[in-house]
Amino acid sequence: REPQFSQKLITCEGGTIGQIDFFVSVSSKDKQILGIVSTWAASFLHFAQLSSQLQSKGEESELFIRQRKLNAFLLDVAKSIFQDFNSMDNVILKVMNFAQKLVSADRASLFLVDSKTKELYARIFDVGQGEDELVKINAEGNKEIRFPMTRGISGHVAASGEVLNIENAYDDDRFNPEVDSKTGYHTTTILCMPIFIRNSVIGVVQMVNKADGVFNKADEDAFEMFAVYCGLALHHAKLYDKIRRSEQKYRVALEVLAYHSVCNRDEVVKLRQLEHGGRIAELETYDFNGMKLSEVEKPLYAVYMFRTLFNDKFRFDPDDLTRFVLT
């Protein structure tokens, strides 16, 4: 039989390496999630094949080792998104920690682009080598740090989209020494890379002070390859976060709707107290006009009519009937 939905696994070059067929109906929300999963799956398969080819040739080069690290990073980020995802901060932390280790940098920073305000912002800033060296911006009561895209090394990279490899930060006019003066840290070398998604800069990763000298061409190449994965991780984390937020809003809306569409116990008791077992002769007159009834009389008359017509036909709970009419 024909599948009801098919999800292709497409590589970065646009080639199809596989296809997943579903023989049950798939909702639009599930299709979005499947699109995310298939992107990661295609990346894993592509680089697993590449690793197998290199291993079969006996090539244990530095490029191969870095490629394996990138594969491990992809897997780690995918787990973060789909298993223990709480916020964008989790993904950002993994991105910064991996980038720092990839090029042996002492410090790492990641800034995201706010296209509406033309600013760079970060909720997590300045990750060092140790776990205790993580500095969160909101520790001082602020949710994030922001500055214009026209300011500093990161701003220049975000605005121009070009890579900057600076051997001496204080010799560059674009460097802003305010952070060093406030923290007592001395910045020497900087490697700053833009993160692209669909030809637009969505963020900037900045590495500071290489452990053994200056950032070289190999670092730039590895960092540039990493920036592609970084953009993929951030893009899908944002998309998954958006789906989760939409689902939460949907649940809240349902709860509010359910709350306002069902009467409470006090309303049921109040109407039951107003009921009388006698006959309402007015309902049997030819000129009876229900539009003249008050808001209290309308449910009372409805309950009376139901009980008059069906009281001998079947059993029902009076409270359930009252609750149904009020709802």
Automatic annotation (TrEMBL):
SMART domains the UniProt entry points to: GAF
Domain of life: Eukaryota
InterPro entries in the record: GAF (IPR003018), GAF-like_dom_sf (IPR029016)
Location of the GAF domain: 87-244
Protein name: GAF domain-containing protein
Organism: Pristionchus fissidentatus
Lineage: Eukaryota, Metazoa, Ecdysozoa, Nematoda, Chromadorea
